[in-house]
Amino acid sequence: MKSILAVTIFLLIFSTSSYAKGEVVQLASTDCQSGLHEHPEGSDFSVFVFCDDALGTQIGIILTRPAAGPVETDTDWSLGNRFWQEGAWMTDVKQMVWSKSGDFLYVTTSQVYSDESFYKIDLVDREACKLISGRELGESVYINRVEEGAIFVNGHEFKMK
After folding, report:
1. What angle do CA 75, 50, 61 make, to 5 degrees?
2. How far apart are CA 126 and CA 61, in angstroms?
3. Residue 24 exposure: Cα atoms within 13 Å on the Cβ side
4. CA atoms within 13 A on the CB side of 100
5. Which of 70, 67, 87, 86 lies closest to 78, judged by CA?
6. SS3 at position 57
7. 105 and 94 in contact (C-beta within 8 Å)?
């Protein structure tokens, strides 16, 4: 009985993932870790990762802050509206990077089930903006590195918010 309790406690403690600031989180099939991925320094938002093997990796944004705001259901985020998953940015995700503030997420998507692009996702306002497309580049889109305040994608620099 004690061993079952110990295993249960271990799983609860380590069932979420968080990362160092500016770390590129690899979500391709062999690197994918299903479950809740929290901002490394705490944020109102978390990302739930669905590792669907041959069907790619899908993500959804969750407002994980307690007392999430108004009760009205017609607002962007509320007590009854805490999950966001729509559009090409959430489908077949290869990589993600949190902004320092935790209010933005940057992702790359694959061409298999999505559109091979790099997106800036405004978590507060539920808006996704395509910053660069693999079609425009004529090659696959990958985050090369992250430096203080900037993400480099296929050699192009993008300022982080």
Report:
1. 20
2. 9
3. 18
4. 9
5. 70
6. strand
7. no
Residue pair 35/17 in contact (Cβ under 8 Å)? The answer is: yes
**DSSP per-residue letters across 41-52:** T--SEEEEEEE-
Residue ranges per domain, the chain?
Answer: 17-159
3-state SS, residue 65: coil
Instruction: Considering the domain delimited by 17-159, tell me its CATH architecture.
Output: Beta Barrel (2.40)
Tokens 């395509």 sit on residue: 130
Digit-by-digit pLDDT tens for the chain (161 residues) are: 444 434 333 333 334 444 455 689 999 878 899 999 998 788 889 999 999 988 889 999 999 887 666 555 666 788 788 899 999 999 999 999 999 989 999 999 998 888 999 999 999 999 999 999 999 999 999 999 999 899 999 999 999 98
Whole-model pTM?
0.83
* Angle at CA of residue 90, ends 88 and 96, nearest 5°: 120
The token pair that represents 103 in the structure block: 């209010």
